[in-house]
Design goal:
The protein has 14 helices and twelve strands. β4 and β5 form a beta hairpin. The protein is of the alpha/beta class. The protein has a single domain, classed as TIM Barrel (Alpha-Beta Barrel), CATH 3.20.20. It has an eight-stranded parallel β-sheet with strand order 11-9-7-6-3-2-1-12. A two-stranded antiparallel ribbon has the order 4-5. α11 packs across α12.
Length: 361
């Protein structure tokens, strides 16, 4: 593999609208590993399936179609799909079998319209009521609960043939700032991190989750200078202490926490050196090109960086070969199955009785 294609293979990109722009098509041809869908890409279910099939056909290789389908307020697939509630509501009953069943629903409906990787579950612990970005996306306030239900949900998603992704390592639950806008810092010592933030990720690693996503958060006990996404000290803990060997995905490098401080090309190189295997650059084509060009130049100039790119690309290729499916005909009957709707209706009814997500583990 030439260095340009090697560098491109570390990217998943976003694009606007429900047609593939020429710039995105050129990146597919250049060798990117996948694309991520947001609200602007979503039409009727048949239209979504057509667009994912178009991208996979153009790529003519295992190509990852990704999205954030968590349930609750972070759900790209809505009209025509089973409505999954926030994870706080799922966590209220502490039922792992229920979490696994809901994960299977998420996975089945993602697969039905051509998606291969769901950036879920969130396993951040909801330890700060002032957190503007996590809140009810978390299963609850206890690390054991988040780990147990997160692992169950990941098993459910993956049982449907879709890769799951635990996020946001090492933990975004206690921040009071939104990393989409600025760079949060957490002053907790390592003992606190090992007690609260890290156990859910340990549980997900043991459960065999296919991927994990980094947090654009500075953890002062791990690295006071850099957010986890760019820190080999923070991400090294995941590999060396927790033992996770799957694909490590950066959160979007265009988010304010990163983009306001580092050019995207510099951030891409730093993230890969820190331990990220797959990079999200979700919005601007010029920044996507900048990231690939920076990775290629860095590999040309430094064999250490080139070796790291090959290591990351090998992990990503294994993920693609395991989970990226060929396009298949769209079958509407795979969405909103009666048994799925009935399960979620029972959960909604139970939520009227059990409201405190900290009561059960």
């Amino acid at each position: 593999m030439d260095l340009d294609r090697l560098a491109a293979s570390l990217l998943v990109v976003g694009f606007p609208g429900q047609e593939v722009p020429a710039e995105t098509g050129a990146l597919v041809d250049r060798g990117i590993s996948g694309a991520i869908f947001f609200k602007s890409n979503i039409g009727e279910p048949a239209e979504i399936a057509s667009l994912t099939a178009e991208l996979k056909t153009r790529a003519a290789r295992p190509f990852l179609l990704c999205l954030d389908q968590e349930g609750g307020r972070v759900a790209r697939l809505r009209e025509g799909f089973t409505r999954v509630p926030p994870m706080r509501q799922v966590g209220a009953g502490g039922d792992a079998a229920l979490a696994e069943a809901i994960g299977r629903i998420l996975g089945e409906e993602c697969r039905a319209v051509g998606f291969d990787l769901d950036f879920a579950p969130v396993v951040d612990v909801d330890s700060n009521p002032l957190n503007p970005v996590i809140g009810d996306r978390s299963f609850g306030r206890r690390a054991a609960l988040c780990g147990k239900l997160g692992a169950a949900m990941a098993r459910g998603i993956q049982s449907a043939g879709v890769a799951a992704c635990a996020k946001h390592f090492p933990g975004h639950g206690d921040t009071t700032q939104d990393s989409h806008e600025t760079l949060p810092r957490l002053p907790h010592d390592l003992a606190r991190l090992r007690e609260v933030e890290l156990p859910p990720f340990q549980a997900l690693a043991r459960a065999g989750v296919a991927s994990m996503m980094t947090a654009h958060v500075v953890f002062e006990a791990l690295d006071p200078a850099l957010p986890a996404t760019l820190s080999s000290k923070a991400l090294g803990l995941l590999r060396e202490e927790i033992g996770f060997q799957g694909v490590l995905v950066s959160d979007d490098l265009e988010m304010g926490a990163i983009a306001e401080r580092w050019p995207v090309g510099e951030a891409a190189v730093q993230a890969v050196l820190a331990g990220c295997d797959l990079l999200l650059v979700c919005h601007r084509a010029d920044r996507q090109v900048e990231a690939i060009d920076a990775l290629r130049r860095a590999a040309e100039q430094d064999d250490r960086i080139k070796d790291r790119l090959f290591e990351a690309a090998n992990r990503v290729e294994k993920l693609r070969r395991r989970w990226a499916a060929a396009p298949t005909p769209f079958e509407p009957s795979r969405l909103r199955r009666p048994e799925s709707v009935a399960l979620l209706e029972r959960l909604a009814a139970a939520a009227e009785v059990v409201r405190d997500p900290t009561e059960r583990a």
